[in-house]
Structure prediction request, 46 residues.
Amino acid sequence: MSTMLLSIKPKYAKVILDGKKQYEFRKSKPKDDVDCIIFYASSPQK
Prediction:
């Protein structure tokens, strides 16, 4: 099982949790197939 940890700005993390945002685009593609994604709100909220 491969897990990916994403840091997301607090304002975007909130709209993802509220269900208003479904996608988070990144500049780089993950190296392996990812089975689980864990995200957290970055500074200043953490």
